[in-house]
């Protein structure tokens, strides 16, 4: 079974975050992709919240994971949603459908923002790196 991960914030290639190096080592970039959600500025990083409105699209990158059993626990720690962190976690890792530029869709792991978005700024473009 293939494991995919959709990243839309600090794990993207051009975000220059050290955790991206781990993803690059254990994952293969597949394509740019979109996830139907609203994107909020949480702090120096964003949070995506699923949306029923097809106009709400979050821009990100899709990776195929070579060693998901190693990579996902490390990323869960980075996203502070592993068991060692107190509930409620800021993110939940969920399997979501994401759309590739080709129009194909795949199911990928997505770190979905898990807290109230009141008072957070909406990133209108849906692209964290374009703002």
Write a compact overview of the structure shown:
This protein has 131 residues and is an alpha+beta fold. The chain is built from two helices and seven strands, in the order E-H-E-E-E-H-E-E-E.
Describe the secondary-structure layout.
Elements: E1 4-7, H1 18-26, E2 27-41, E3 46-50, E4 57-65, H2 68-78, E5 91-100, E6 105-113, E7 121-122
Parallel strand pairs: 1-6
Antiparallel strand pairs: 1-4, 2-3, 2-4, 2-5, 2-7, 5-6
Q: How much is the radius of gyration in Å?
A: 14 Å
The helicity comes to: 10-25%
Assign the CATH superfamily: Gamma-glutamyl cyclotransferase-like
Overall outline: globular
**Spatial separation of the terminal alpha carbons:** 36 Å
By DSSP (H or I, 4+ residues per run), the number of helices equals 2
Mean pLDDT: 96
In the CATH hierarchy, the architecture is Roll
Low-confidence stretches: none
- Please give the largest β-sheet: 5 strands, mixed, barrel
Find the structural class using helix and strand composition.
Answer: alpha+beta
Beta-strand segment tally: 7
Q: CATH top level?
A: Alpha Beta
